[in-house]
Amino acid sequence: MNDLLFELPLPELFDWKACLDYMARSPLECLYRTDGEGVTRLLRADSGALLIRLTAPEQERLRVELLEGKRPGDAGLEELARYIRDWFDLDRDLRPFYKLAADDLLLGPLTERFRGLRIVGIPDLFEALCWAILGQQVNLAFAYKLKARLAEGYGESVHWLGNRYHLFPLPERLLGAPEEELCALQLSRSKARTITAVAGLIADGALSREELLALGSPEEAEARLTAVKGIGPWTAQYVRMRCLRDASSFPIGDVGLHNAVKSVLQMDRKPSLPELRELFAGWRGWEAYATFYLWRVLY
């Protein structure tokens, strides 16, 4: 019998199935498994690795159960709850975004189609940065394969009911990885170097999510990230969106965004950057959510 850890209240404009459908978009995902009712994932806690399952049998509450591992203490449970709220952006009031989208010819149909979808985040900065770095200039399927190779080669895992569940590696594990070893996983040399550089900064405490969130503005956080060799504007904007929870992040150079806008507007070509800026001008402050809903058309 599963051990109920706690339940979390769900906000207005949240739909569990919409989030699960998004998370199920690729069979290559290695860090969690979804089914029609919930998601199972291995997470770190003060008591060690925990295999947890999230379901929402009632629309108003998210149920968090322990499948494998030692039950955390109160502080560990609080940290786990914070992680889950962050993972599904549960603390955000989406009513202003839906109000803005209601009369918008492009966003309106998307918010109806994907009503209740939240930006499914990556609360851990190292994981978020690595995922963005791995995704630079490659297709999504190959990025998933690279992530799986890193997780399988350098992360902890548990075996449960015929499936293996992985934790994304700690920065200390990749800090010591030889460059040739990472390249053997089919990472480019530049990606291998950027990931080990980021691992060093985070392991040494020279870069942290807390530090980035404490800066005066999202633009300062982006500047801090792009100061690291190998991290450009797209990578930084992606991390702002998925990890730092900046709803105004606008990854204008994203190829997927260009393809989504082309598809939704039935254009015979991809939009230009000036056209994208004009399109997004009316969505100021919610660019990240507009982008996420447009991505959802493709994935």
TrEMBL record:
Superkingdom of the source species: Bacteria
Picking any one GO biological process from the record gives:
DNA alkylation repair
Recorded family membership: Belongs to the alkylbase DNA glycosidase AlkA family.
Q: Does the keyword Nucleotide-binding apply?
A: no
Q: Which PANTHER family match?
A: DNA-3-METHYLADENINE GLYCOSYLASE
Q: Return the protein name.
A: DNA-3-methyladenine glycosylase II
Instruction: Report the EC code(s) recorded for this entry.
Output: 3.2.2.21
The family database entries (SMART domains) matched by this protein are listed as: AlkA_N, ENDO3c
Keyword field: DNA damage, DNA repair
Q: Provide the reaction this enzyme catalyses.
A: Hydrolysis of alkylated DNA, releasing 3-methyladenine, 3-methylguanine, 7-methylguanine and 7-methyladenine
Residues annotated as coiled-coil are: none
Q: Which GO terms describe its cellular component?
A: cytoplasm; protein-DNA complex
Query: What are the protein's GO molecular function terms?
Result: alkylated DNA binding; DNA-3-methyladenine glycosylase activity; DNA-7-methylguanine glycosylase activity
Q: Which is one Pfam family of this protein?
A: HhH-GPD
